[in-house]
Each structure stands twice: as structure tokens, then as C-alpha cells.
Amino acid sequence: MGSSFEKLQKHLKQLPGLGYRSAERIALNLLVEKPDRLPALVAALEEAARAVRRCSRCGNLAESELCSICAAEHRDASIVCVVEHVPDLVALERSAAYRGSYHVLHGKLSPIHGVGPGDLNFASLLARVAGGGVTELILALSNDVEGEATCHYLTEQLAGTGRAVKVTRIGFGLPSGGGVLYADSVTLKSALDGRRSYA
Q1: Is residue 105 a part of any domain in this protein?
Q2: Which of 109, 144, 166, 191 could form a disulfide with 150 if both were Cys (CB 3.0 to 4.6 A apart)?
Q3: Are residues 80 and 29 located together in one domain of the fold?
Q4: What is the predicted pLDDT for the residue at 193?
Q5: 50-54 long-range contacts, CB within 8 A, separation 24+
Q6: At residue 122, does pLDDT exceed 70?
Q7: What is the pLDDT of residues 53-91, one digit of tens each?
Q8: Residue 149: band (very low, low, confident or very high) from pLDDT cuts 50, 70, 90
Q9: 152 — phi, psi (to 5°)?
Q10: Residue 82 lies in a domain
């Protein structure tokens, strides 16, 4: 195989969820089996690179100043669900269980990996809260040490905004159809801590 093929395969392999075999299969598909698809794919990638940016309000993907969620009048802008990454927002939207607004931090605090407050989208969230109109923040961050540290940092920073905002944390527990036997200790603790009235 020539170096151009290997270079393509190497770049594909760097994409999330793609290993060596998957990258090789995609590269072969584009170059050998379906070469007519390649120009359209390249054009779509170039167009997206030019047009897609971060929403100025929440940090979601947008093609204008605001994303479609922030621009939607029927969404409840007073409730803001804080997520780590855009795929988290997409997953919540897919569930159709939430009709408020979002804020994407683009990561979580992780001193070990060199991620500090200045690397995350905190400033615009605090500005949203300080500007008024936000009544509740739902923290939908990972149930791990870094996620907890990020939640703690955020609640400390909220005190400096001068606004009384209700802060809630999404519940964590057993997945639908999952049993106690196969759950890890962190999941079981979260399931017990996040319990609510049944009757």
C-alpha cells in the first residue's frame, strides 16, 4: 500500500471509535469500492469546517450566532442543563425528556490532564446566570471524581454571581433492565443516594 493510503488510514484511526481495522475498511470503501462518494464527503467536511462554530450563548454547535436550541422560542431558557460535551447534549435531546436550554462546558476539571477553569466554558455560563432569568441549573456531568470536582467548583462560583439559583444534579443509578447483582459499587451508591418516594 502507498503512503497516501497509509496517511488516510492513520487520520481515520484517530477518529473516536475507529480502530485499525475500521479505519482500513473505511479507507478501502472510499478509495476502491465507492470512490464516487469521496468528492461529496470531502465537500461536506470542508463546508462544515467553514460554517460550524460554537453557539455564543451555550457552546453547542451552530451555524449562526445562536444554535437552534437557544434560538427556539418554545424552549424554557430559565432552566439550564450543564453538560460536558456536545454529544451529551445530543443524547439528552434524543431522549426527548428535557425541554429547557443547555450549556456545554467542553470538558471537566482535571488537573492531572492539565484542564483548569480557564480551559472550560465557565465564564459564559456565569454571565448567563448573572444576567438574570436562570432559575435552575441541572448538572448533568460525569459521576466520577473530575465530574464531582467540576460541580463543586461551579457551585462555588455561582455564589459570586449574586443570584439565587436552584442547583440540581441528575440522578445516577441502575440502567433500565439492569440488576443489582451486576452493578458496580459506585452505581449502587448513586442508586441509593438518588432514591425518591415511590408511593
Answers
A1: yes
A2: 109
A3: no
A4: 77
A5: 54/104
A6: yes
A7: 999 999 999 999 999 999 999 999 999 999 999 999 999
A8: very high
A9: -65, -45
A10: yes
